[in-house]
Every structure is written in C-alpha cells, then in structure tokens.
Design brief:
This protein is about 40% helix and about 20% strand. The protein has helices at about 1-15, 20-30, 35-45, 50-80, 85, 105-120, 130-135, 170-180, 220-235, 290-295, 310-320, 325-330, 330-335, and strands at about 120-125, 130, 155, 165, 185-195, 205-215, 240-250, 250-260, 275-285, 300-310. The strands form 2 sheets. It has a 7-stranded mixed beta sheet with strand order 1-5-6-10-9-8-7, with helices on both faces. The chain is α+β, with helices and mostly antiparallel strands. The protein binds 3,4-dihydroxyphenylalanine. 3,4-dihydroxyphenylalanine (DAH) binds near residues 170, 210, 305 and 307.
Length: about 350
C-alpha cells in the first residue's frame, strides 16, 4: 500500500492541466468516489492494525496534497482563460509606488507646442552654448547694445569670438533660417540664461518658446490671427488680446501682446495692477536686416516672429507666485500638478 501511495504522489506532482476539461479529469481520477483516493481508503480498511497509524497519516497527507494540487490547477486554468485576470501583473509590488508627476514647465511647454503644431508649426531646437553671431549680431543688435554687457549676459569666452549662454531662443530663428529655404514655420522651445539676481520675479535661467514664420506675402494680420488663436486655446475662448507698439532689434514693427486678465475678467484687480490686461509675449515682423543676415531675400520673403516666456504663462495658468518654486524640486509643490497631466 505504501508503494501505491508513493506512486500516487509522483503522478499527482507531475499532473498538468491546460483546460477546465483536464482539471475535471484530474478531479475524477483522484478525488471522485471511484477515484484513486477512494480506492486507497478502501484498501486502508484491510490494513493490519499495527500499520494503521503510519499508513493513515500518509494517506491523510496525500489527500491534502491532492486537494491543494487540484485547487492550484483550477486557479491557473481559470486565470489563463479569463482575459481580465490574464492582464494582471503578478510581479508588481503590492504597495503603491509614487510615480512622480510632470513638471509644470513641461506641462505648459507641451500645451503650447500642441497648439502651434495644430496650426502647422514644427519644433526646432538649437544649442544653449552659443556664439555672438547667432544671439546678437545676426539679429540686428547694435554693437553697443546693453545685452552684450557682462552685467546682462553670461560669457564663457571672449576671445577670439564671444561664446556665451544664449539669452533668448531667438538664436534658433537664425540657425534655422541659415540652413532652411522658406517657407519656414517653427516653434523653438528651450532654456535661456541671463545674469540676474535670483528673486521671486527673476531668475538666472528660465524657458522660452520662439515662433517664426517666413514665406511670401506674410502680413501682420497673419501674426495677429495666430496669436489670438493661441491665446484663446491657452486661456479660454473668451480671452481678448491687445497689441502695444514696442521695440526689438530683430523685428520692425514690433509689439508686445497683452491678454485680458483672467482673474478679474478685465475689470481690474491686484494681479493685473488694476489695468485689466497682462503682458504675455513680444512679437513683430522680421526685420529685413535679419533676413539678409541669414541669406534670405527680403524683396521676396517676409515673416513674423514672436517669443514668450514659459514661466510667465505657467504663472498665469497656475497662479504660481514665486519663480524659484520651479527650480527647487520640492515634491510637495510638484505633486500639486499630478492631476494636470
Ligand atoms: N527675444 C525676446 C526676449 O527674449 C522675445 C521676442 C520678442 C522674440 C519679439 C521675438 C520677437 O521673436 O519678435 O525678450
């Protein structure tokens, strides 16, 4: 009898089942009234009294083992045939793992890129370590412009050419125009650096997105329409825009754009300094001198450009009061944007 018990162990151990029918076969073979266990029980009745204790124990253990084996075969087949359970990753940790969240600057940058790419703009990038030509000279900056001063710009080397950290993403305009035939329609996101004392309102690095469109017959009206569409998608369909004349060396005419304050709805509040408007970007028609610097004929082509600060847009959208929050990596601050995307 001991041999039969041992043999049953081995058989049960190597039993496999790929379907519910096979699981049922297993049950019938071992656990049913006419099954192996029942027949062993039958045999057990005739065992001499002195062997009853030992064999009884063995038989009991076999019964427990067969039942466990049956349950596990049943579970495996059940999980495999149930698509919901099949997709459960059993290797995953049972305790939740903090997955982190996207940085607010990235969220807003991606939103801005999406809005402009829907209007046909593609993304272009350029280096953060730049030379004088791409950041200043090609963009029509005068030789004595204050931005060329050490007080405003981080210089890395001054000889034989000025090497510096770019102060704006307008440098990507020039780089793209130098190597691309119009039409050009790009947005250029990136980090920029300025020699500023760090405070709630200023930082030595921040992020910008530059926009550029060069083609035949591009007008100021095209610029206005694109910016209006952007403002409404970014800040809501009721948003109004206002363009004020301004000056930038690389555009003529130049303007700064305000949007209606979305806190007071344009009535005037502390946020918009009672004006009802908040400034969000600089823009204008690309100066013919800039086109010439990049080998584009201003008699044939015209274009517009604009530049906006991502921190500024993020402040407006999420009401962040202190610029330094963006670079402190305080998880309590960053976790507030978990649901934003
Ligand atoms: N480069 C400017 C800045 O950093 C922003 C800017 C203004 C970009 C007007 C432009 C523009 O392309 O047309 O302040």
């Amino acid at each position: 009898m001991l041999d039969r018990i041992e043999a049953a162990y081995k058989e049960v151990e190597s039993a496999i089942a790929d379907s519910l029918a096979q699981v049922e076969d297993f049950r019938l073979k071992y656990l049913s009234k006419k099954g192996v266990l029942s027949s062993l029980m039958e045999e057990f009745r005739n065992v001499p009294a002195e062997q009853k204790r030992e064999l009884g124990q063995k038989l009991n253990q076999l019964k427990i083992y067969v039942t466990e084996r049956y349950n596990s075969l049943k579970d495996n087949v059940g999980n495999a045939s149930n698509p919901e359970l099949k997709s459960i990753d059993l290797t995953r940790s049972a305790t939740p793992i903090a997955t982190g969240s996207r940085h607010p600057i990235s969220i807003v940058r991606n939103d801005i890129i999406r809005i402009f790419s829907d209007m046909g703009f593609s993304v272009a990038e350029g280096p953060e370590i730049e030379d004088d030509w791409h950041v200043f000279s090609s963009l029509n900056f005068a030789a004595d412009h204050p931005a060329r001063d050490m007080q405003d710009t981080f210089f890395i080397a001054r000889n034989p050419v000025d090497v510096l950290l770019r102060t704006h993403t307008s440098s990507v305009q020039t780089r793209t125009m130098e190597k691309t035939e119009p039409p050009i329609r790009i947005v250029c996101p990136g980090r920029v650096y300025r020699n500023e004392a760090i405070s709630a309102r200023a930082h030595c690095f921040f992020h910008q997105i530059e926009g550029l469109y060069i083609d035949k017959n591009v007008s100021f009206a095209d610029l206005k329409q694109v910016l209006l569409n952007f403002a409404r998608q970014m800040f809501g369909p009721e948003t109004k825009i206002r363009l004020r004349p301004s000056y930038f060396p690389f555009t003529e005419p130049s303007a700064e754009m305000d949007i209606s304050c979305d806190i007071c709805g344009g009535k005037g509040c502390a946020f918009c300094k009672e004006t009802g408007w908040v400034e969000i970007l600089g823009c204008g028609m690309v100066d013919p001198n800039v086109l010439k610097s990049c080998g584009i004929d201003p008699e044939i082509y015209s274009g517009y450009a604009f530049g906006l600060g991502i921190e500024r847009i993020t402040n407006l959208k999420y009401k962040v009061k202190d610029l330094r929050m963006f670079s402190e990596n305080d998880v309590r601050f960053l976790a507030e944007f978990e649901s934003a995307r």
